[in-house]
Amino acid sequence: MNNKKIKVAMVTNHFGITGIGTVMMNYCKTLDKKKYDLTILAGQPISEKYEKECQENGVHLVALPSRHENPKRHYIALWKALRAGHYDIVHDHGSSSMMAIELTIAKLAGVKIRIAHSHNSTCPNMKVHKALNPYFKTTYTKALACGKLAGDWLFGKEQFEILPNGFNTSNFYFSKGNREDIRNNLGIDKQLVIGHIGRFNMQKNQEYLLKIFEKIAEKRKDSILLLVGTGPDAEKVKMLVEQHKYKNQIILYGETDNPAFFYSAMDVFVFPSRFEGLPVVLLEAQISGLPCVVSNKVTQEVDFGDINWQSIDDSPDKWSDAVLTMQVRSDQERDEYRKNNLHLIEKFDISQSIKQLDEIYTKLICFK
Predict the structure, then answer these.
(1) 3-state helix, strand, coil in the chain (%, to 5)
(2) Which residues, other chains included, contact 156 with Cβ-Cβ below 8 Å and sequence gap of 6+?
(3) Buried (b) or exposed (e) across 188-203, using 16+ Cβ within 10 A?
(4) Where residue 2 falls among pLDDT bands split at 50, 70, 90?
(5) Contact assessment for residue 271 and residue 295, using Cβ atoms and an 8 Å cutoff
């Protein structure tokens, strides 16, 4: 190989604050810029946070028209960008066989190395996914998945490699100072804080979480529900909170750039998702030493060994009992929990993921 940089284009259909977006940014911020020339090709909307991070970290960002609002313009712009960029590798991030369209465009644009990266275990449009799946499997040259569940879902019996979602795990260590700051800012004293961080949408199931909290609040008068995030269902969730019997005990914080602060402020983390690939928030919560009550629709690859798994088909009352029977850990116990699980935490550190991704890219280029 000569000293020419490897040109990589990471592709996603939109670049709002999502799990996929965060993983892509973590990769792009950490990959060696002396070795790689990195570009993100993303449909609107594009987060201002990600736009700023791209500028600060020497990552090119090409904004495409919204795929949702104008698919034709979106795909034409993608083709033009791929043709003009002369990329060595296209790394497509998604959760369904719809990636076949982007990967076909990449092939037509002359990109020989095409990576399909699965980030979830289902998708909204199953009919289209199933119809495209046989063809989709002919469009990529390398298959990656954030976990086994996500890989089995998209690639089936075809071979794929698991690349865990990597992030700076040390950012999420429990902090007594952060706990006190957030609780003081939110007017929380010694109440029991039930926490949730996630995109407000059908998948994350905040509507059901509000029903769970109603049962919790009936049994624990000092309980608080802290919801952190935003998304397409934000207005719907806000309306449900306004109608909630215990609305004065619910905090809708909105979006944050510092989720680690909020994990430290919580006592129990609740995650009733309808489906997931490999949710980074659950890893972050456990690193912070939080007891977690989680839907059994979530892959158990994220379990450090102490998650309380519950069925979303069960009653909110049963979930509330599970939450209230979780032992709230002291500051010291939370720190000890992290130290006892370092061997599991390290697997998800960005340093390990980037080492693996660099090896994947390098091998693909060598055998090009």
Answers:
(1) 45, 20, 35
(2) 133, 137
(3) beebbbbbbbbbbbeb
(4) low
(5) yes
212 in the same domain as 163: no
Same domain for 277 and 152, yes or no, is no
DSSP 14-50: -BSSSHHHHHHHHHHHHS-TTTEEEEEEEESPB-HHH
Range of the domain at 60: 6-167+349-366
Enter the tokens of residue 23: 């993983």
For residue 278, give both structure tokens.
């490999």
Count of beta carbons in the 10 Å neighbourhood of residue 64 = 24
DSSP type of residue 201? S
Distance CA 305, CA 248 (A): 34
Query: ∠ at Cα 196 (118, 179), nearest 5°?
Result: 120
User: Could you tell me if residue 1 is inside a domain?
Assistant: no
Which pLDDT does position 1 carry in this prediction?
Answer: 47
* pTM for this prediction: 0.88
Pick the more confident residue, 240 or 121.
Answer: 240
Q: In DSSP terms, which residues pair with 114 in a beta bridge?
A: 90
Are 197 and 142 in the same domain?
no
Residues 305 and 160 in one domain: no
Name the token pair of 292. 């977690």
For residues 213 and 245, membership in a common domain is answered with yes
353 assigned to some structural domain:
yes
Cα dihedral across residues 14, 17, 18, 23: positive or negative: positive
- Residues 317 and 174 reside in one and the same domain: yes
């949408």: which residue's tokens?
Answer: 201
- Cα(345)–Cα(295) distance, rounded to whole angstroms? 21
Which pLDDT band, with edges at 50, 70 and 90, does 225 fall under? very high
Instruction: Indicate if 183 and 304 belong to the same structural domain.
Output: yes
Kindly report whether the peptide bond that precedes residue 45 is cis, defined as omega within 30 degrees of 0.
yes
Residues 17, 160, 64: CA angle, nearest 5 degrees = 35
Nearest to 196 by CA among 245, 163, 241, 149: 241
